[in-house]
Design goal:
The chain is mainly beta. The chain has helices at 99-102, 198-201, and strands at residues 3-6, 21-27, 33-35, 44-51, 58-61, 68-69, 79-80, 85-89, 92-95, 107-113, 121-127, 133-136, 145-150, 157-161, 167-171, 178-179, 186-187, 191-194, 206-212, 219-225, 232-234, 243-248, 255-258, 270-271, 286-289, 292-295, 308-314. The longest helix has 4 residues, at 99-102.
Length: 315
Amino acid sequence: MSINKRLIGTGGAGINPTDYFDIITYIGNGSTRSFSSLNFQPDLVWFKERYPEGFAHNLYDSNRGIYQALNTASTAAEGTSTQGLQSFDTNGFTVGNVNQVNSSGRYYVAWSWKEAPEYGFSIVSYTGNGVNRNIAHGLNQAAELVIIKSTSATYQWMVGHKDFQNYYNELPNDEPWTSNSTRSITLNTTTNGVTSYFKLNASGQDYIMYSFHSVDGLQKIGTYTGTGSSGNAVTGLGFAPRFVFIKGNNASDWLLKDKDRDALSTNETLFANLNSRESSSTTLAMSYDSNGFTLNGTSTQINQSGVTYIYLAIA
Protein backbone atom coordinates (compact mmCIF):
# COMPACT_ATOMS: atom_id res chain seq x y z
CA MET A 1 0.00 0.00 0.00
CA SER A 2 1.19 3.49 -0.76
CA ILE A 3 -0.33 6.76 0.37
CA ASN A 4 0.69 10.09 -1.13
CA LYS A 5 -0.59 13.09 0.83
CA ARG A 6 -0.68 16.81 0.20
CA LEU A 7 -1.63 18.56 3.40
CA ILE A 8 -3.92 21.46 4.15
CA GLY A 9 -5.29 22.73 7.44
CA THR A 10 -7.21 25.42 9.25
CA GLY A 11 -7.23 29.09 8.51
CA GLY A 12 -8.85 32.31 9.66
CA ALA A 13 -8.64 36.05 9.47
CA GLY A 14 -6.22 37.60 7.03
CA ILE A 15 -6.68 35.00 4.29
CA ASN A 16 -6.88 36.34 0.76
CA PRO A 17 -9.34 33.96 -0.95
CA THR A 18 -7.69 34.36 -4.36
CA ASP A 19 -4.47 32.96 -2.89
CA TYR A 20 -6.33 29.65 -2.57
CA PHE A 21 -9.10 29.55 -5.17
CA ASP A 22 -9.82 31.40 -8.37
CA ILE A 23 -11.87 31.20 -11.54
CA ILE A 24 -10.76 31.75 -15.13
CA THR A 25 -13.22 32.00 -18.01
CA TYR A 26 -11.93 32.00 -21.58
CA ILE A 27 -12.61 31.28 -25.23
CA GLY A 28 -10.62 28.37 -26.69
CA ASN A 29 -8.10 29.01 -29.46
CA GLY A 30 -7.22 25.42 -30.43
CA SER A 31 -3.50 25.90 -29.71
CA THR A 32 -1.22 25.38 -26.72
CA ARG A 33 -1.60 28.36 -24.42
CA SER A 34 -0.79 29.49 -20.88
CA PHE A 35 -2.88 31.31 -18.28
CA SER A 36 -0.96 33.33 -15.68
CA SER A 37 -3.57 35.37 -13.78
CA LEU A 38 -3.63 33.24 -10.61
CA ASN A 39 -1.92 34.22 -7.36
CA PHE A 40 -0.73 30.64 -6.86
CA GLN A 41 0.40 27.45 -8.54
CA PRO A 42 -2.73 25.29 -8.59
CA ASP A 43 -2.91 21.74 -7.24
CA LEU A 44 -6.37 21.02 -8.63
CA VAL A 45 -7.84 22.43 -11.85
CA TRP A 46 -11.39 21.54 -12.92
CA PHE A 47 -12.16 22.42 -16.54
CA LYS A 48 -15.58 22.51 -18.16
CA GLU A 49 -16.56 23.57 -21.65
CA ARG A 50 -19.64 25.75 -21.18
CA TYR A 51 -21.04 26.00 -24.70
CA PRO A 52 -21.86 25.38 -27.47
CA GLU A 53 -20.99 21.66 -27.41
CA GLY A 54 -21.12 20.30 -23.85
CA PHE A 55 -17.74 18.52 -23.82
CA ALA A 56 -16.76 16.46 -20.76
CA HIS A 57 -15.51 17.75 -17.43
CA ASN A 58 -11.74 17.36 -16.98
CA LEU A 59 -10.17 17.33 -13.49
CA TYR A 60 -6.40 17.32 -13.01
CA ASP A 61 -4.49 17.35 -9.73
CA SER A 62 -0.84 17.53 -8.75
CA ASN A 63 -0.93 14.15 -6.98
CA ARG A 64 -1.79 12.28 -10.19
CA GLY A 65 0.12 14.65 -12.46
CA ILE A 66 -0.52 16.28 -15.81
CA TYR A 67 -2.22 14.37 -18.65
CA GLN A 68 -4.34 12.37 -16.15
CA ALA A 69 -7.97 13.53 -16.38
CA LEU A 70 -11.06 12.48 -14.46
CA ASN A 71 -14.66 13.33 -15.33
CA THR A 72 -17.26 13.81 -12.57
CA ALA A 73 -20.01 12.99 -15.08
CA SER A 74 -18.51 9.55 -15.75
CA THR A 75 -17.65 6.41 -13.82
CA ALA A 76 -14.59 5.82 -16.03
CA ALA A 77 -11.08 5.47 -14.68
CA GLU A 78 -8.71 8.37 -15.31
CA GLY A 79 -7.83 8.91 -18.96
CA THR A 80 -4.54 10.03 -20.46
CA SER A 81 -4.45 13.01 -22.81
CA THR A 82 -1.18 14.65 -23.79
CA GLN A 83 -3.15 17.59 -25.21
CA GLY A 84 -5.09 18.32 -22.03
CA LEU A 85 -3.38 19.99 -19.10
CA GLN A 86 0.26 20.55 -20.06
CA SER A 87 1.63 21.94 -16.78
CA PHE A 88 0.84 23.45 -13.39
CA ASP A 89 2.60 26.83 -13.57
CA THR A 90 3.74 29.31 -10.92
CA ASN A 91 0.75 31.60 -11.52
CA GLY A 92 -1.58 29.39 -13.52
CA PHE A 93 -1.48 26.51 -15.96
CA THR A 94 -0.87 25.58 -19.60
CA VAL A 95 -3.31 23.65 -21.79
CA GLY A 96 -3.10 21.91 -25.14
CA ASN A 97 -5.82 21.74 -27.77
CA VAL A 98 -8.05 18.86 -26.69
CA ASN A 99 -11.78 19.63 -26.91
CA GLN A 100 -12.35 19.41 -23.16
CA VAL A 101 -9.99 22.30 -22.37
CA ASN A 102 -9.27 24.42 -25.47
CA SER A 103 -11.20 23.83 -28.68
CA SER A 104 -11.24 26.90 -30.92
CA GLY A 105 -14.25 29.17 -30.43
CA ARG A 106 -15.68 27.27 -27.46
CA TYR A 107 -16.33 28.90 -24.08
CA TYR A 108 -14.70 27.44 -20.95
CA VAL A 109 -14.42 27.83 -17.20
CA ALA A 110 -11.47 26.60 -15.10
CA TRP A 111 -11.83 26.42 -11.31
CA SER A 112 -8.43 26.22 -9.59
CA TRP A 113 -7.48 25.30 -6.00
CA LYS A 114 -4.22 25.68 -4.09
CA GLU A 115 -3.05 23.50 -1.21
CA ALA A 116 -1.58 25.14 1.88
CA PRO A 117 -1.98 24.61 5.66
CA GLU A 118 -4.57 27.35 6.16
CA TYR A 119 -6.99 26.48 3.38
CA GLY A 120 -8.99 23.46 4.61
CA PHE A 121 -8.49 21.27 1.54
CA SER A 122 -6.39 18.18 0.89
CA ILE A 123 -5.65 15.72 -1.87
CA VAL A 124 -4.70 12.17 -0.88
CA SER A 125 -4.02 9.25 -3.18
CA TYR A 126 -4.11 5.67 -1.87
CA THR A 127 -4.25 2.05 -2.97
CA GLY A 128 -7.16 -0.03 -1.72
CA ASN A 129 -6.67 -3.05 0.53
CA GLY A 130 -10.23 -4.40 0.78
CA VAL A 131 -10.35 -3.98 4.58
CA ASN A 132 -12.08 -1.32 6.70
CA ARG A 133 -9.45 1.33 7.42
CA ASN A 134 -8.74 4.95 8.38
CA ILE A 135 -6.78 7.11 5.94
CA ALA A 136 -5.05 10.26 7.17
CA HIS A 137 -6.50 13.30 5.42
CA GLY A 138 -3.82 15.80 6.45
CA LEU A 139 -6.24 18.41 7.77
CA ASN A 140 -6.05 19.99 11.22
CA GLN A 141 -9.67 19.13 11.94
CA ALA A 142 -12.29 16.74 10.65
CA ALA A 143 -13.24 17.02 7.00
CA GLU A 144 -16.80 18.14 6.31
CA LEU A 145 -17.03 17.14 2.65
CA VAL A 146 -15.12 14.22 1.09
CA ILE A 147 -15.13 13.07 -2.53
CA ILE A 148 -13.44 9.79 -3.52
CA LYS A 149 -12.93 8.27 -6.97
CA SER A 150 -11.09 5.18 -8.12
CA THR A 151 -8.59 6.32 -10.72
CA SER A 152 -7.94 2.78 -11.97
CA ALA A 153 -11.45 1.29 -12.15
CA THR A 154 -14.89 2.08 -13.53
CA TYR A 155 -16.64 3.00 -10.26
CA GLN A 156 -18.86 5.89 -9.22
CA TRP A 157 -17.52 8.88 -7.31
CA MET A 158 -18.36 8.46 -3.60
CA VAL A 159 -19.36 11.52 -1.55
CA GLY A 160 -19.59 12.03 2.22
CA HIS A 161 -20.88 15.12 4.06
CA LYS A 162 -20.84 16.13 7.74
CA ASP A 163 -24.62 16.49 7.91
CA PHE A 164 -25.24 13.07 6.34
CA GLN A 165 -23.12 10.81 8.57
CA ASN A 166 -23.74 7.10 7.83
CA TYR A 167 -25.17 8.14 4.46
CA TYR A 168 -23.52 8.26 1.06
CA ASN A 169 -24.14 9.70 -2.36
CA GLU A 170 -22.60 9.06 -5.75
CA LEU A 171 -21.61 10.98 -8.84
CA PRO A 172 -22.76 10.92 -11.57
CA ASN A 173 -26.00 9.63 -10.04
CA ASP A 174 -28.82 12.11 -9.38
CA GLU A 175 -30.36 10.33 -6.40
CA PRO A 176 -31.08 11.33 -2.78
CA TRP A 177 -28.61 10.44 -0.02
CA THR A 178 -28.75 6.76 0.96
CA SER A 179 -28.43 5.45 4.52
CA ASN A 180 -25.83 2.67 4.58
CA SER A 181 -22.95 2.65 7.05
CA THR A 182 -21.12 -0.03 5.06
CA ARG A 183 -20.78 2.38 2.14
CA SER A 184 -20.44 5.73 3.91
CA ILE A 185 -17.27 7.72 4.64
CA THR A 186 -16.58 8.34 8.34
CA LEU A 187 -15.30 11.87 9.01
CA ASN A 188 -12.79 11.75 11.89
CA THR A 189 -10.51 14.40 13.35
CA THR A 190 -7.36 13.18 11.59
CA THR A 191 -8.64 10.51 9.23
CA ASN A 192 -11.42 9.59 6.84
CA GLY A 193 -12.72 6.11 7.53
CA VAL A 194 -13.50 3.91 4.52
CA THR A 195 -15.02 0.46 4.51
CA SER A 196 -14.17 -2.51 2.33
CA TYR A 197 -16.83 -1.39 -0.17
CA PHE A 198 -15.24 -1.66 -3.60
CA LYS A 199 -16.00 1.93 -4.68
CA LEU A 200 -14.02 3.13 -1.64
CA ASN A 201 -11.35 0.53 -1.01
CA ALA A 202 -11.12 -2.43 -3.41
CA SER A 203 -7.89 -4.37 -3.01
CA GLY A 204 -5.26 -3.25 -5.51
CA GLN A 205 -7.28 -0.38 -6.99
CA ASP A 206 -6.00 3.21 -6.91
CA TYR A 207 -8.06 6.10 -5.50
CA ILE A 208 -7.97 9.87 -5.17
CA MET A 209 -9.60 11.58 -2.17
CA TYR A 210 -10.49 15.29 -2.00
CA SER A 211 -11.29 16.54 1.53
CA PHE A 212 -12.66 19.95 2.54
CA HIS A 213 -13.61 21.72 5.75
CA SER A 214 -14.95 25.20 6.49
CA VAL A 215 -12.46 28.05 7.01
CA ASP A 216 -13.55 31.42 8.39
CA GLY A 217 -13.62 34.04 5.67
CA LEU A 218 -12.77 31.55 2.92
CA GLN A 219 -15.14 28.62 2.52
CA LYS A 220 -18.22 27.16 4.16
CA ILE A 221 -19.68 23.66 4.00
CA GLY A 222 -23.25 23.40 5.19
CA THR A 223 -26.88 22.78 4.35
CA TYR A 224 -30.01 24.80 3.66
CA THR A 225 -33.68 23.94 3.34
CA GLY A 226 -35.64 24.68 0.18
CA THR A 227 -38.77 26.81 0.38
CA GLY A 228 -40.13 26.48 -3.15
CA SER A 229 -40.29 30.28 -3.32
CA SER A 230 -38.04 32.97 -4.74
CA GLY A 231 -35.98 34.89 -2.18
CA ASN A 232 -34.76 31.92 -0.10
CA ALA A 233 -31.70 33.51 1.56
CA VAL A 234 -28.83 31.39 2.88
CA THR A 235 -26.90 33.56 5.34
CA GLY A 236 -24.10 33.31 7.89
CA LEU A 237 -21.26 32.38 5.55
CA GLY A 238 -19.09 35.23 6.77
CA PHE A 239 -18.05 36.21 3.25
CA ALA A 240 -19.42 36.96 -0.21
CA PRO A 241 -19.25 33.70 -2.20
CA ARG A 242 -17.95 33.43 -5.75
CA PHE A 243 -18.47 29.67 -6.17
CA VAL A 244 -21.24 27.41 -4.84
CA PHE A 245 -21.58 23.63 -5.30
CA ILE A 246 -25.08 22.28 -4.46
CA LYS A 247 -26.81 18.89 -4.21
CA GLY A 248 -30.30 18.21 -2.84
CA ASN A 249 -31.47 15.24 -0.84
CA ASN A 250 -33.83 14.43 -3.69
CA ALA A 251 -33.65 13.30 -7.32
CA SER A 252 -31.58 16.26 -8.50
CA ASP A 253 -28.35 17.10 -10.28
CA TRP A 254 -25.10 18.37 -8.73
CA LEU A 255 -25.06 22.11 -9.47
CA LEU A 256 -21.99 24.26 -10.12
CA LYS A 257 -22.62 27.99 -9.78
CA ASP A 258 -20.11 30.84 -9.84
CA LYS A 259 -20.25 34.60 -9.91
CA ASP A 260 -17.77 34.99 -12.78
CA ARG A 261 -20.01 33.15 -15.24
CA ASP A 262 -23.00 35.05 -13.84
CA ALA A 263 -21.50 38.43 -14.78
CA LEU A 264 -24.37 39.09 -17.18
CA SER A 265 -27.14 37.13 -15.39
CA THR A 266 -27.70 35.07 -12.26
CA ASN A 267 -28.89 31.93 -14.02
CA GLU A 268 -25.75 30.28 -15.43
CA THR A 269 -25.47 26.70 -14.17
CA LEU A 270 -23.27 23.72 -14.94
CA PHE A 271 -23.85 20.22 -13.61
CA ALA A 272 -21.06 18.09 -12.14
CA ASN A 273 -22.91 14.90 -13.05
CA LEU A 274 -23.65 15.91 -16.66
CA ASN A 275 -21.46 16.82 -19.60
CA SER A 276 -24.20 19.05 -20.99
CA ARG A 277 -23.65 22.65 -21.97
CA GLU A 278 -24.31 25.49 -19.55
CA SER A 279 -27.94 26.14 -18.62
CA SER A 280 -29.40 29.66 -18.40
CA SER A 281 -32.70 28.55 -16.91
CA THR A 282 -34.31 31.14 -14.64
CA THR A 283 -35.61 28.27 -12.48
CA LEU A 284 -32.00 27.88 -11.25
CA ALA A 285 -31.39 31.58 -10.60
CA MET A 286 -29.24 32.51 -7.59
CA SER A 287 -27.85 35.84 -6.41
CA TYR A 288 -24.57 36.34 -4.53
CA ASP A 289 -24.81 38.34 -1.30
CA SER A 290 -22.28 39.89 1.11
CA ASN A 291 -22.88 37.13 3.68
CA GLY A 292 -24.34 34.28 1.63
CA PHE A 293 -26.52 33.62 -1.39
CA THR A 294 -30.20 33.78 -2.28
CA LEU A 295 -32.12 31.14 -4.23
CA ASN A 296 -34.46 32.93 -6.61
CA GLY A 297 -35.12 29.89 -8.73
CA THR A 298 -37.83 27.47 -7.65
CA SER A 299 -36.69 24.31 -9.43
CA THR A 300 -36.53 21.08 -7.41
CA GLN A 301 -32.84 21.08 -8.41
CA ILE A 302 -32.12 24.03 -6.12
CA ASN A 303 -35.10 25.04 -3.94
CA GLN A 304 -37.78 22.39 -3.44
CA SER A 305 -39.90 23.05 -0.39
CA GLY A 306 -38.75 21.04 2.64
CA VAL A 307 -35.75 19.44 0.93
CA THR A 308 -32.28 19.66 2.48
CA TYR A 309 -29.47 20.73 0.16
CA ILE A 310 -25.76 20.47 0.87
CA TYR A 311 -23.41 23.18 -0.33
CA LEU A 312 -19.74 24.08 -0.61
CA ALA A 313 -19.36 27.87 -0.91
CA ILE A 314 -16.01 29.57 -1.57
CA ALA A 315 -15.18 33.27 -1.43
